[in-house]
Amino acid sequence: MTTETIRLHITPLTPDLLNSVVPASVRPSATGISFHIIPTFPENNYGYITLPKMEAEKIKKKLNGFDSERQEVQGRCGSPIEETQG
Description:
Elements: E1 5-11, H1 15-21, E2 31-36, E3 46-52, H2 53-63, E4 67-68, E5 71-72, E6 74-77
């Protein structure tokens, strides 16, 4: 049985914010965590986290509108990762 997963796109997301975004109880099921930096706009750093659908929906609902150091945090579904065979 496979669990449906969702890839969340979270802005802003840095390694320092990860612990406040993803609860410790959910962290073991989080995969595909990546951080991306925009050098010209460092305040707009973002990242992706792949989570089971139910946990992703909870985090997305919690994050939308959350204020982190005077910057609104946004969580939305990211584009799916295409798996290649080979």
